[in-house]
Amino acid sequence: MKKIVLLFLTLVTVTIAGAQPARRLQEQAAQREAEKSPTAVTLSERARSQYTAQTSMPAEVTWRRDIYRELDLRKEKNAALYYPEEPLGDRVNFFTLLLNLILDGKIKAYECRLDGNELFTPDNELDIDNMLDKYYIGYTKENGKYVITNKMDIPKPESYFIKESNYLDQLSNYQTRVTAICPVMKDSVIGEDATISQPMFWLNYDEISPYLGQTQVMTSSYNNTSNMSLDDYFVMRQYEGDIYKTSNLRNQPLSEYCETDSAMQIERARIEKQLTDFQNGLWSDADQTSATGQQTAEGTQTKKAAKEPKQPKEPRQRTQRAPRQSASSGERISVHR
């Protein structure tokens, strides 16, 4: 009986040991299949949990101002988001990376509302089919996944909208971070020498930052080894963007109350100066408070020293003089004054 049980346990052990390598081989094959595409971006849940992206904005802050900027890809500092125009080995441009992540279901995109603001809620999620049809991107569905039939159909945005949140945390630290991104297409107005902006969709930066941290971009035309991750690119504010709106009570972009281009430039400079003055004022106020505190402490010590009563002098002790001696008789005569 013992031999039968021992034989049974041996067979079970061999079966399990044989099944484990087979399962690992299947998983490795599936992973290699997913990595065949040069534009595929994979990030395990473990990698996502270990990735140290920029810290999220606290729920409670003492001061905050939201700024919307447009990053024109024709500017040198923003070229890192445009190139390469076509996939180059394992390198793709920023928009192709975002589109692949959306089609693979790894990140969610959200509709652009008429008021121009972002809304990251389930009822405002992007209708992917409508978006692909709107921009004439050919695709098929295989096992519930989107597959682009022609890579040449992928559009090339000419700019990006980003939302910056400038805030003061509970420790009075001034911070600036990107919170949302939106690719923008440009269309020419028929019969006019003008273009209109067509925002495609909004993305929550906190959701895409782990993937951006795994993607390297070249940031200099003069030093081709000057690379950094896309996440560092945004966190370190290596981009250049013009303000087109701020969060305000009327939800007005600058174009609605600036009648001319020169007026818009003046307004942009005014807003930038407000932010700079506020940030610099934090340091000067702190220095002033420190200096004032030191002066107050020194003044208090001076006044305290001035008010301290003088110590009374000790009374002089009178000493008795030695008695005079008579020179003639030699007798001692005590004379006391």
Question: In summary, what is this structure?
Answer:
The protein has helices at residues 2-34, 45-50, 94-103, 128-134, 205-212, 230-235, 254-257, 261-307, and strands spanning 63-72, 139-142, 145-148, 159-168, 174-188, 195-199, 203-204, 216-218, 227-229, 242-246.
Number of strands: 10
* Quaternary organisation of the protein chains: single chain
Strand content: 15-25%
Rg over alpha carbons? 38 Å
* Shape assignment: globular
Percent range of helical residues: 25-40%
Description:
By secondary structure, the protein is an alpha+beta fold. Helices cover 36% and strands 18% of the residues. It has 8 helices and 10 strands. A hairpin with a 6-residue loop joins β5 and β6 (195-199). It is globular.
What topology emerges from the helices and strands here?
Layout: H1 2-34, H2 45-50, E1 63-72, H3 94-103, H4 128-134, E2 139-142, E3 145-148, E4 159-168, E5 174-188, E6 195-199, E7 203-204, H5 205-212, E8 216-218, E9 227-229, H6 230-235, E10 242-246, H7 254-257, H8 261-307
Summarize this structure as a short list of keywords or feature phrases.
337 residues, alpha+beta, six-stranded antiparallel beta sheet, two-stranded antiparallel ribbon, 8 helices, 18% strand
